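Homework help board

Subject: predicted structure for assignment chain

Our instructor gave us this sequence and asked us to write out the predicted structure in token form, then describe one feature. I got the tokens but I'm not sure how to describe them. Can anyone check?
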Amino acid sequence: MKQEFNNFAEFYQFYLEEHSNRYCRRMHFIGSTLVVAVLLLSLITQHWWLLILLPILGYGFAWLGHFIYEGNKPATFTYPLYSLIADWVMFKDIITRKISI
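My token output:
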């Protein structure tokens, strides 16, 4: 059943609960890092075909983390926009060491 959230802050708390396993968070971090790297590579080399790899890398690593380590359904399937935003907020929180991996 779809849960209702009044704002992003409420959703982000739910999102973090769905990412309680550190290995799942690591998979998300790897995928997001690869997205940034490939995006930069594409901009530098102007090989625009590389952009097709962005969702494959980002979602591929994240979904593997959920299926292998977390054992739950990715929130992206139910809350696509909030989940995309939350992925990058969690990425920032990992870089700033607010969340551990």
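Reply (TA_rk): Your tokens look well-formed. For the description, you could write something like this. The CA atoms of residues 76 and 83 lie 5 Å apart. That's the kind of observation they're looking for.
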